[in-house]
Amino acid sequence: MKIYNLFAPTLLVLFMSGCGSDTAAKKDSFSLEITNAKKTYTTEDVLSISVINKKNIETDSIIYFLNDDTVEISGSSISLAGKKLGEKTLNAKIYSDGEEYTASKKVTILSSIKPKLYTYKILETYPHDINAYTQGLEFENDTLYESTGQYKESSLRKTDYKTGEVYKKVTLSDHYFGEGLTILNNKIYQLTWRENTGFIYNLNTMEQTGTFVYGKSKEGWGLCHDTENNIYKSDGTDRIWTLNSNTLAEKDYIEIFTNTSKISSVNELEWVDGKIYANVYQQGSIAIIDPSNGAVEGVIDLTDLKDKVTQHPKLDVLNGIAYKGEPNILYITGKNWDTLFKIEVLKK
User: Which fold has domain 116-347?
Assistant: First the structure.
């Protein structure tokens, strides 16, 4: 009995070491090469790939994935057309006699188009609460709903956008920092920043009816929804997540890229005619994004709009996009701005 106890740990170590060596050996059996490799790619590129069989293992089949999505191969080529943008992993899963081997390469896919540049024209101005740290803004018919932030100051508001009058206000508990909102199926959805909690309200009464939690997304920043009942959520990174409108579970995400780089700090969101309009935090601009792949198709330059409001110590950045169905018309404000602007978006 003593001998068994003495040698069991040694045998266990040898067994585990053998398993580790076997795993390492499997990883080293194949490598994936891109023969026309570049630093970055676009959706117009076709990758020429080759799987190097280092140990001449007889293979049954190979399946290719871009992250978790299977991709078709034609001969030795993989087309990136229609693929989502971002920093991806191209994986090859090789099957041989019941065994599975893997080989991978990192790829970065950029947009194939240069964003169009837009400017603006102010059509009208309306009063806005200078103490409202605006985080989310959305119309429901002719009524403007607003979410405000800051600990001990966060709220949900129903307002008259023309006069600035607050019809009704729901105050959040002191330990919540309010963020973006959207309205869908007679419900208001409101995010909080770092509290991993979203609130659900009855649209008519503004009574809280439920909560939801985030998944892999790090924080809560902006919300909007499309005409197919998908909800989109930004988390302060380069990602916008698609949420199931019934469960609020995260289904997927897009990464936001131009033809040269990724766009981080994506904040307040608005759905406008099939595109996501996203405020880029601290940039004074709005990115027009293709929701299918994350490509930035346009940028609206609003950098000098902040200069047109009352300057005061608490004045902060642009953050508030609302759309009322009027072609090329947006309603814009910011954190602690005393003005809501109705603007026309114009090509530069």
Answer: Neuraminidase (2.120.10)
